[in-house]
Specification:
100 residues; alpha+beta; two-stranded antiparallel sheet; DUF2252; Aminoglycoside phosphotransferase domain-containing protein
């Protein structure tokens, strides 16, 4: 597996979402990127573990926690596919910059 630039401290507390009234855009961002070179799976494992701990603390059953992880994995794969197949006419907003 090729090393990539990962977040390095990816957990649910790093995710932020807000609505930019001036530009009428929904903004989703991940804060405090540490820019660590490592396998991307490290970030995924840390985030998945964090999701399990939060769900457990909130009283979800084991079956529900497994479903939460399945949804997370499916959405992650969908996002990677969408991002890697986006053409120049499509746009994805990452932080406050448009990615083409």
């Amino acid at each position: 597996m090729e090393p990539t630039c990962i977040h390095g401290d990816l957990h649910i507390g790093q995710f932020h979402y807000y609505f930019d009234d001036i530009n009428n855009e929904r903004i989703f961002k991940i804060r405090r990127h540490k820019k660590i070179i490592a396998p991307f799976t490290w970030d995924l494992k840390r985030l998945a573990t964090n999701l399990v701990l939060i769900a457990y603390h909130q009283g979800f059953s084991d079956t529900e926690i497994i479903e939460i992880l399945h949804v997370f994995i499916r959405q992650y794969i969908k996002c990677v596919i969408t991002t890697t197949t986006t053409t120049t006419t499509d746009k994805m907003i990452l932080c406050k910059k448009k990615f083409y």
